[in-house]
Structures are given as structure tokens and as C-alpha cells.
Write a structure and sequence with these properties.
Helix content of chain B: 25-40%
Number of domains of chain A: 1
Structural class of chain B: alpha+beta
Subcellular location (chain A): Cytoplasm; Nucleus, Nucleolus
Main location (chain A): cytoplasm
CATH class of chain B: Alpha Beta
Oligomer: heterodimer
CATH architecture of chain A: 2-Layer Sandwich
Number of strands of chain A: 15
Number of helices of chain A: 9
Protein name (chain A): Ribosomal RNA-processing protein 43
Number of helices of chain B: 4
CATH superfamily of chain A: GHMP Kinase, N-terminal domain
CATH topology of chain A: Ribosomal Protein S5, domain 2
Order of helices and strands of chain A: HHHEEEEHEEHEHEEEHEEEHEEH
Radius of gyration of chain B: 18 Å
CATH superfamily of chain B: GHMP Kinase, N-terminal domain
Strand content of chain A: 25-35%
Shape of chain B: globular
Radius of gyration of chain A: 23 Å
Distance between the termini of chain A: 59 Å
Largest sheet of chain A: 7 strands, mixed
CATH class of chain A: Alpha Beta
InterPro entries (chain A): ExoRNase_PH_dom1 (IPR001247), ExoRNase_PH_dom2 (IPR015847), ExoRNase_PH_dom2_sf (IPR036345), Exosome_comp_Rrp42_subfam (IPR050590), PNPase/RNase_PH_dom_sf (IPR027408), Ribosomal_Su5_D2-typ_SF (IPR020568), Rrp43 (IPR033196)
Shape of chain A: elongated
CATH architecture of chain B: 2-Layer Sandwich
Domain Exoribonuclease phosphorolytic (chain A): 46-203, 240-292
Largest interface: A-B, 34 and 41 residues
Chain lengths: 325, 241
């Protein structure tokens, strides 16, 4: 392998950083032979993950998730709406994923990242396919109004003004902002969305004279004569929660939780989403020069199972910390 | 045992819908192909290789650009996702080093959508790439499998059948190999080389075993599809006499 290439002589003398930029594949190969990665992790280990719930005080539910340096902020806002006639007792969820220029030098103000709409769609497919949110729970009064979950940017606070003019219009808007893109974007985004849903509290509502549903804020509840429809703020029950792990397939190696550098050098990615009862919600492999054989797929699924347990623990700890407050 | 043994149009679960593939369907285009499975029909048109790559792309490789035009309406997020999956799948089958610093544009137009849209588009683009004459290392053969509640797997469901399923999977395999080399050299580990998976996209929830069954059925179907492609693409080569 080292015979015919001109870098063979230079590699002994070159600085590590230069070698890393000029010959990235060879740089990684040298590490993988020793079963380790440039940041010191063993091949199957994911980066340190932290979750902080309630990061955005003005949103009805929010969470900040960090996997290594990849940071995602998810915020949920609720608005009232009249449900669709074909499913009169179900609310709906709209998820949007944004990659502002802050997240990566590749994204510039005039050129939106091409990954953003793709991850956005993947997230909404995953959350809907996994059935983690029971849409019937988003219903206030059967047939009259339902909550629709929207994922929506924090900046659009003036949307609240429109709510007063809109009749019975409640939308759950879930907005996920990528604050730092360092690989494994889908994993971090899914984790932050799920954490935001588990933090979400549906506020107290009541019907006013015209039969419209209005949100009661804390102080109003005492003053108005209207009966609140639901007595207290309630949380959504989440059934089997989906967690994901992205792996890279490179020659015979499987690297879990890649950084952005690893993703750009070794392009074959595979994302496995398992829910907490280990059912497969999604196995996503968008092309890539390395073919995945059954043994590799089973290894990825096994790594994901392990990761599901880790993430479950992290989510439970974050939620119990919230309750203590 | 299982009441859904016959699908709406009288097929057994193991049968694919009727396939047709024709090349060179459009004039003044470097290469084109249309592919239909049952009622789903997709036309792929290819321009290229043209000189120059898009900004920021690797200059030592050819660049593939995909534009997906839906049957009705504007291009939105689902179209962007299809474009990305198609692009990455085609990048893995083309020999990109042969034409560095060029761009090949693949335009996919949906003529009719009766489900299995992504597999149809992948098959059509592959046939169009053969029509243009871009060097490939293997063809991509795409198939859709659906999983019913009981775990039973059905191949190539149509829209009506899809609504009754709990999950479906789009799988892309390389085409099966007809070779004079001895069997052992075609195997990687315990598995034949053509059983590797190029792409996979799933919708809905299923158990891991269901997915592995889908993989097996998909592989068997891809062998049939490869035979179909081989016959179809060979017969259109013009004779030199």
C-alpha cells in the first residue's frame, strides 16, 4: 500500500495536521488499524451526550441536546386549530429543522444547507412512524378543536398575535435549530425533539363566549368566569420512544457516531432508529460506496440497541432533574 | 391462515407488478429511459457529462446532480429527500474518477404515482445511465417490500395495498453477477457480493426480524429484476452490420 505513492517519504516528516488535511483516508486508516479514532474513542462508542430540558422559557416545551460538539435546540409552541374532517379527534404535528449559518462554515446566508430539508423530512417521518405521540391526546374537545404541534422558530413570537385573530387554531410547532453541526445531525435532532416533547406541558384552556378556545395564562385563570376545559397543565404520554444511532461503514469497520470530518471523508452512512421496545422504526442508508451485508447491518443494530439504553438513562435523568425543580 | 394472500390485482405476494422499461424515449437528450411498475411510471433524462462541477465539489471526481420533478405541484421537502437519496445511490454506482471535473444532470419526472416511486426512479435512472453510456461498476436494482401486521412480507405493493400495511421498505441492491470467475471469488465473507445493500429507506415500525425477512425477499426479487434488466438492455444494442 505504501509502495507506489509519493507521500510515503513525506509522511514521516510531515506534521500531523498537514497529513490529516492532505491524506485524510490514510490518516484514518492508520488509526483504524489500531482500533481507535482520532479523538481517542474506540470504534463503537458514541460521544458524550448531555440534555438540558426547558432551555427556552417562552416555549411550551424545549430542550437542548449535545452529542459531542453537535448542538441542537428544539422548541415547541402550541396553537389551537380545528381538526381535519377525516380525523376529527386527532391533532397534528409539524416539524421543521433549520441550519442557520452559525452551525458550520459550509452553510452561508445565501446558500441553505442541502441537508436541512432532508433531515426535516426524516425527522417528521420518524416521529410519525414511531407513533410516539398519540395524536388523539392533542385533542381538547372532541370535534371542536385540537392542538396541532408545529415546530417553529423562536424568532416568530409575533405569531402569538395572530393566534387571537385565528379561530380555534392550535398548532404544535416543533422547531429544531442546529447550533453546531459536527456530524450525526439526525441523532442529535431526534434526541432534542423527543426531549422537548417529554418536557411539553399543555397549558390550561377554556371556551369563551363565542365558543372559541383560548389559552389561559396563569393569572387570567382566576379572573375570568369561564370554566377551564382542563383543570391543570398536563403532559403528553409518550409511548415507545425512538432513539437513533448513525454509523459509518468503511471497509470492514463500523464507526459509531461520526464527527463531521469522518462523515466527509468516509461517505457511507447508515442511521438506525430503534424505539425503547427495540422495534425498528427506521433503517436509513442513502447510497454510499460501501455495500452493507447482513452481518454489518446486524452489528449496527446491536450498537444501536446499546445506545438506546444509554440514551434512555440520560433522558430519564434529565426528566427527574426537571421534576426536582 | 393469512387472508391477504392475493393482492388487489390478483398477484401472489411474491410477484412483482408488470414491468416495462424503454430506453431512448426522448429526443435531443443525451440519454433517457422510462420505467413503469404497474401503474407507477417514471421518466429519467440525463444530460452530461458537461464540463465544470458545482462550487465546492471535489474536482477529482465527476459530480452528479439530480432534479426531481413531481407529477403535480411544487418541489418541496419530500422531493429534496428523494433527490438526495437518488444522488447518493447513483454516486455509488458510477465510476466517478473516469470523468473528473464534470457534471451529469439527472432529471426525474414522475408521470404517474401508484406507490414504489423511489425504486421506480432509481431503476429508470440506472437504465438512463446505461443509455448515455456513463461507465458504471454495477447497476442499481431497486425494490419495494411491504410488511403486514402479522409480519408477512409482500413485494411491490400498490397504493391501495400500502394503506393496509404497517410498514414498507425501499431497498436497492447491486445487480446479480453472471461471471466466468469461480464462485468463491465473488463472495465477501459468507455472502455473495450481490447481496450487499446499496440503499435502504423505511417507513413505519416493524421488528428487526421483519426487516431481515424483507431483505431476503428483496434479494430474491432483485435477482429477477436483474435478469429482466439484462434482457431488456441487451436487446436494444444496435447491431453493427
Amino acid at each position: 500500500m505504501e509502495a507506489a505513492n509519493p507521500s510515503g517519504d513525506l509522511s514521516a516528516e510531515m506534521e500531523v495536521d498537514a497529513f490529516r488535511r492532505l491524506f485524510p483516508l490514510r490518516f484514518f486508516d492508520r488509526h483504524l488499524v489500531e482500533s481507535i479514532r482520532p479523538d481517542g474513542r474506540p470504534l463503537g462508542r458514541a460521544r458524550d451526550t448531555t440534555l438540558a430540558l426547558g432551555a427556552v422559557a417562552s416555549a411550551d416545551g424545549s430542550a437542548l441536546a449535545k452529542i459531542g460538539s453537535t448542538t441542537m435546540l428544539a422548541a415547541i409552541k402550541l396553537e389551537v386549530m380545528t381538526p381535519a374532517t377525516e380525523s376529527p379527534d386527532e391533532g397534528s404535528i409539524a416539524i421543521d429543522f433549520h441550519m442557520p449559518p452559525i452551525c458550520s462554515p459550509m452553510v452561508r446566508p445565501g446558500r441553505p444547507a442541502e441537508a436541512a430539508p432532508v433531515i426535516s423530512k426524516q425527522l417528521s417521518d420518524t416521529i410519525l412512524s414511531s407513533g410516539v405521540i398519540n395524536l388523539k391526546e392533542l385533542c381538547l374537545i372532541s370535534g371542536k378543536a385540537a392542538w396541532m404541534a408545529y415546530l417553529y422558530p423562536e424568532e416568530r413570537n409575533n405569531m402569538n398575535l395572530k393566534v387571537d385573530k385565528l379561530w380555534n387554531f392550535m398548532i404544535t410547532i416543533v422547531d429544531i435549530y442546529c447550533l453546531d453541526a459536527d456530524g450525526a445531525l439526525f441523532d442529535a435532532a431526534l434526541l432534542s425533539a423527543i426531549a422537548a416533547f417529554s418536557h411539553l406541558e399543555i397549558p390550561v384552556v377554556s371556551l369563551d363566549e363565542d365558543g372559541r378556545v383560548v389559552i389561559l395564562s396563569q393569572d387570567e385563570g382566576l379572573k375570568t368566569s369561564n370554566e377551564p376545559v382542563n383543570a391543570e397543565k398536563r403532559k403528553l404520554t409518550l409511548s415507545d420512544i425512538p432513539f437513533s444511532l448513525t454509523c459509518i461503514l468503511y471497509k470492514n469497520y463500523i464507526l459509531a457516531d461520526p464527527t463531521a470530518e469522518e462523515e466527509s471523508v468516509m461517505e457511507t452512512l447508515i442511521t438506525v432508529v430503534l424505539d425503547s421496545s427495540y422495534q425498528l422504526v427506521s433503517l436509513y442508508k442513502p447510497g454510499g460506496s460501501v455495500l452493507a451485508y447482513t452481518s454489518a447491518l446486524q452489528d449496527c443494530i446491536a450498537l444501536t440497541r446499546h445506545r438506546v439504553q444509554e440514551l434512555k438513562k440520560i433522558l430519564d435523568e434529565a426528566m427527574s432533574e426537571m421534576e426536582v425543580d | 391462515m393469512e387472508t391477504l394472500l392475493f393482492l388487489v390485482d390478483g398477484r401472489t405476494p411474491n410477484q412483482l407488478r408488470p414491468l416495462t422499461c424503454s430506453r431512448n424515449v426522448l429526443n435531443r437528450i443525451h440519454g433517457s429511459a422510462s420505467w413503469s411498475q404497474g401503474d407507477t411510471k417514471v421518466v429519467a433524462a440525463i444530460y452530461g457529462p458537461k464540463s465544470g462541477t458545482k462550487k465546492g465539489e471535489n474536482l477529482e471526481k465527476a459530480c452528479i446532480e439530480v432534479i426531481w420533478k413531481p407529477k403535480t405541484g411544487q418541489s418541496g421537502k419530500p422531493e429534496k429527500e428523494y433527490e438526495m437519496i437518488l444522488r447518493r445511490t447513483l454516486q455509488s454506482i458510477c465510476l466517478l474518477n473516469i470523468h473528473p471535473n464534470t457534471t451529469t444532470s439527472v432529471i426525474v419526472r414522475v408521470v404517474n404515482d401508484d406507490d414504489a416511486l423511489l425504486p421506480c426512479a432509481i431503476n429508470a435512472s440506472c437504465a438512463a445511465l446505461v443509455d448515455v453510456g456513463i461507465p458504471l461498476n454495477h447497476l442499481a436494482v431497486a425494490i419495494c417490500c411491504g410488511v403486514v401486521e402479522s409480519g408477512f412480507v409482500i413485494l411491490d405493493p400498490s397504493k391501495i395495498e400500502e394503506q393496509k400495511m404497517k410498514a414498507f421498505v425501499h431497498l436497492v441492491f447491486p445487480n446479480s453477477v453472471l461471471s466466468v470467475l469461480p464462485e468463491e471469488s465473488l463472495h465477501v465473507g459468507d455472502e455473495a457480493k450481490e447481496h450487499g445493500l446499496i440503499s435502504s429507506v423505511t417507513h413505519g415500525r416493524m421488528s428487526v426480524d421483519d426487516y431481515l425477512h424483507c431483505l431476503e425477499r428483496g434479494r430474491a426479487a432483485s435477482a429477477k429484476l436483474s435478469a429482466f434488466l439484462r434482457k431488456n438492455l441487451q436487446s436494444q444494442v444496435p447491431s453493427n452490420t
